[in-house]
Design goal:
This protein folds into two domains: 47 residues; 125 residues, OB fold (Dihydrolipoamide Acetyltransferase, E2P) (Beta Barrel), CATH 2.40.50.120. It has five helices and seven strands, in the order ααββββββαβαα. The protein has a five-stranded mixed β-barrel. By secondary structure, the protein is an alpha+beta fold.
Length: 191
């Protein structure tokens, strides 16, 4: 086996091994955002009380958790009285931490194809008087939510997507791209 093929085979093997072990090695790293910056980046900012917490099956840190809120105030975006948002189950995968049923929170969420999502980095946190004051300073006094259940929340509950499946698809794509790049490199060196 020539040097180019050894490099290609070794690179492909290394990529496969990294992809197989990546979930255990993943960690979350967030930029330090002010409340005003987090508010600008979010599609939805609202305050409310967590009424239910539903954890997805399995124990992977990438599994999803569904938080349903009784929204009392909307600061940005169109919030409904009942809104569900998803997050990864583990802080290592940038999931929000320490939020339980009955907690009052300020939600910073982004719209995705599966509904509202939030991460450890988005700013979602317990609704302290200081945080609420910062949100009102950045985004205004807020308004009452729309009556009913958020249609985006229903999509979030029924989407069934999980981070491990998405990660697996991305890992396979990366491995295929690395293998193709290795073959192209080997052919270029021959020619």
């Amino acid at each position: 086996m020539g040097p180019a093929r050894r490099v290609s085979a070794t690179g492909t093997l290394a990529v496969l091994l990294m992809a197989a072990g990546a979930p255990a090695a993943m960690a979350c790293s967030c930029a330090d955002l002010s409340t005003a910056e987090a508010g600008k980046l979010a599609d939805l900012v609202a305050s409310g009380t967590v009424t239910t917490v539903q954890r997805g099956p399995g124990s992977s840190s990438g599994e999803r958790v569904f938080y349903t809120l009784a929204v009392d105030k909307s600061f940005k975006g169109e919030a409904w009285q009942t809104t569900t948002v998803t997050s990864a189950a583990s802080g290592a995968s940038c999931g929000v931490q320490g939020i339980d049923e009955g907690d009052d929170i300020v939600l910073f969420a982004s719209e995705s194809p599966g509904g509202w999502t939030t991460t450890l980095c988005d700013g979602t946190a317990p609704a302290s008087p200081a945080l609420l004051q910062e949100v009102e300073k950045a985004l205004g006094a807020g308004k009452a939510p729309q009556e009913g259940t958020d249609p985006k929340a229903a999509r979030a509950e029924g989407s069934g997507e999980s981070a491990p499946r998405l990660f697996g698809a991305a890992a396979i794509g990366f491995v295929v791209a690395a293998a193709v790049a290795g073959v192209v490199l080997a052919r270029q060196r021959r020619g």
